[in-house]
Amino acid sequence: MIYLAPIQGFTDFIYRKAYAKVFLNVDTFFIPYISVKNNQILKKYEREILLQNNPQKKVIPQILVKNKEEMLFLSKTLQDLGYNEINLNLGCPYPMATNRGKGAGLLPHPDKIKTLLNSFFEKSSINLSIKFRAGLNSSEEIESILPVFNEFPLTELILHPRIARQLYKGKIYESAFQLAQNTLKHPLVYNGDIFSLADYNNCQQKFPETKDWMLGRGILMNPFLPDEINNIQISKDEKWEKLKEFHQFIFEGYTENMDNEGNVLNKMQQFWSLFSFNFPNQKKIFKGIKKSKNITNFNQEANKAFLSFY
Ligand SMILES: Cc1cc2nc3c(=O)[nH]c(=O)nc-3n(C[C@H](O)[C@H](O)[C@H](O)COP(=O)(O)O)c2cc1C
């Protein structure tokens, strides 16, 4: 199975919907985390979780919480909306979250994770999976967390084997993934740095028991990566057509859903920061897109990129 990773700001509902219309080889879509303030879901997340914005076969919303009250509130809200599974974020590495005891901030406290999960499983009936890292400050933290996970009927665990301090770069703790593989009773999904078919093959060789893979930046840079992993051949003409169609859906999606042209331009520039890797001369293309002052300029630059594809 191939999962699309939740990437705040990138894999929003517009991206996920457009992706699923054009590309066929992602099995599960994750909604980037939603969180609570003053007992309410933050407004900016509301559209993300509406069922009508998530028509794909399997969509799992993710939650970022600091205590059991927030977790119960969000799980109930999501269950009432119609979801049958949610994912708990124990990986967010940013101090804004970790200093408040959220995301990877919970990893050094297996006792707190246990309290959270105890209360959740006592009071909720929605399925739960967890996405986590090897630790907040040290990859040794994982050793005390895995036994806690084993006490609960989680559907699966997804591990990005880095510690929070690294953010999204640097050494992958292969030994932490291996330990999780050997210790956990649950299915384990691998996540991290699969940017090409060669990376995928390499990971598969290292972790031959792994069946499910979560890909983030690799798909944002190359939306055909899941096809490549599934050994599906696509001609260059077909690639051009699909990229063009995908780009059109994304552009229309932001145009319909953003308040003003400036916001559409910002979102498209962000999208191109990784989408530009589909074109030769990526740096030059992205520079042109980034310098665009308005939508007319932007469209000219995007058209230039598509002309440069061959
Ligand atoms: C800008 C950015 C935003 C992210 N947002 C989330 C998020 O909301 N929830 C989450 O669990 N992980 C988030 N991640 C982490 C990704 O899901 C994934 O674990 C990470 O990018 C490593 O996978 P990759 O190498 O395939 O991209 C984010 C990563 C980035 C770079």
CATH topology of the largest domain: the name is: TIM Barrel
CATH architecture of the largest domain: Alpha-Beta Barrel
**SS field, number of helical segments:** 14
User: What's the CATH first level of the largest domain?
Assistant: Alpha Beta
Entry keywords:
310 residues; alpha/beta; TIM Barrel; 2 domains; eight-stranded parallel beta barrel; two-stranded antiparallel sheet; 14 helices; globular; binds flavin mononucleotide
Task: Give a structural overview.
It is a single chain. The protein contains 14 helices and 10 strands. It has 310 residues and is of the alpha/beta class. It folds into 2 domains: 2-229, Aldolase class I (TIM Barrel, Alpha-Beta Barrel), CATH 3.20.20.70; 236-307. It has an 8-stranded parallel β-barrel. The structure holds flavin mononucleotide. Flavin mononucleotide is lined by residues 5-9, 32-33, 62, 89, 91, 131, 160, 168, 191-194, 215-218.
Tell me briefly what this model is.
With 310 residues, the chain is an alpha/beta fold.
What's the helix and strand layout?
Elements: E1 2-4, H1 13-22, E2 28-34, E3 36-37, E4 40-41, H2 43-49, E5 59-63, H3 68-81, E6 85-90, H4 95-98, H5 110-123, E7 127-135, H6 141-149, E8 157-163, H7 174-183, E9 188-191, H8 197-206, E10 212-215, H9 217-221, H10 225-229, H11 236-257, H12 261-275, H13 282-291, H14 295-307
Parallel strand pairs: 1-2, 1-10, 2-5, 5-6, 6-7, 7-8, 8-9, 9-10
Antiparallel strand pairs: 3-4
The structure holds flavin mononucleotide (FMN).
